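To whoever is on call:

I kicked off a structure prediction for a single chain this morning and the downstream step that reads the tokens threw a length-mismatch warning. I double-checked the sequence; it's 417 residues and nothing unusual in it as far as I can see. Pasting both halves so you can look.
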Amino acid sequence: MQRTKNKTVYDVFIERGFIEKVTDEEKVPDIVEGKVTCYIGFDPTASSFHVGNLVPIMSLAHMQRHGHQPIALVGGGTGLVGDPSGKDEMRQILTYEEINKNANAQKKQFSQFLDFSGGKALLLNNADWLTKLNYIDFLRDIGVHFSVNRMLATESVKIRLETGLSFIEFNYQLLQAYDFWYLFKHHNCMIQMGGSDQWGNIVAGIDLIRRLEGKQAYGITFPLIMTADGRKMGKTEKGAVWLDAQRTSPYEYYQFWINTDDRDVIRFLALFTFLPMVDVEEYGKLKGADLRQAKEMLAFEATKIVHGEEEATRARNASRVLFSLDERTEGEAIPTTCIDRRRIDEGIPVFKLFETASLCASGSEARRLIEQGGAYINNHKVGKFDDIIKLDDFGEKGEMILRAGKKKYQRIKLKTS
């Protein structure tokens, strides 16, 4: 994407809906007119990012596309403590081995969004400096600058005081503030960005830099992205939508985006793709059935960023088969279950087939689905739960498409053992 003349990354953040709060609304737009270094910290609490992590990751990518140097900071050190922000209870304490394993896996995913060659972006792990701190020295040099009264007044701490806040979690704000100071000192990092729940931690870092260095740093927070029906972005009935293809296949990832609520499509095109805003605005003019074009573009672009253009194309082709948009396209990317031909030759009740395909968790769930009219084979509604499926039902290709409800599909293929 080419940089628009005279348009700064701050302008892009505003028009695409990234910004919730800024520590200095006058200075920040000015300093990003020149090259700056910024950072966001990521907790290595899982071996993969999920869709809920995309806003901060995309913001780093936009910073780089506008000539700035982003730092993706893996919280190998802070992850050993656990961030209480936005949590109702204490996070599970992970081992050093678990933290390191997750951190290494996350490093690979950052490379899908950022170019780390030639110092264009930095990938750092705060374990490199936090785990080497001397506790007494840390208290004397850093802790002396923190007011317990002010820390207790931060929103993330106040919420947790009602359910209980451990001493180890209470220290988290000091460690994150130290991160900002360390990056300011060693990498000239001027801006920390993060979710809205990080506001108190970011301000604490800015204050520490001012006290230790006598200089000014800045912060930007992003809004918590909610869907039009009030759900947290990235949460589904099956759980999180992961960026790791082993957890969420490219096809499933594509399906997540194409099933976006009509009311969210344009907003998500702005947040989760790099399409120029002039194109996003054109898609915003579509209404009714035509809005599916915008959904297809959202799903394709979002999948391409994470899984590459080839996988995005395969997922789009498979989706078009299922929705009868292109009967000539093969659906190789559709989730597939292979069943021994001999088992079908003997006959299998249709409810058992839905259970075998993992479209239903049990036979009783499959029966209820069929009785309620939510089961389909090749787009034809299943009549009775005990109908027997035989070889003739698979046609010349030896396969069929099962559907549970509106969005869950599985292809069944015959195999000869």
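Update from on-call: the warning came from a stale cache, not from the record. Cleared it. Sanity check on the structure: The domain at 336-415 is CATH 3.10.290.10 (Structural Genomics Hypothetical 15.5 Kd Protein In mrcA-pckA Intergenic Region; Chain A).
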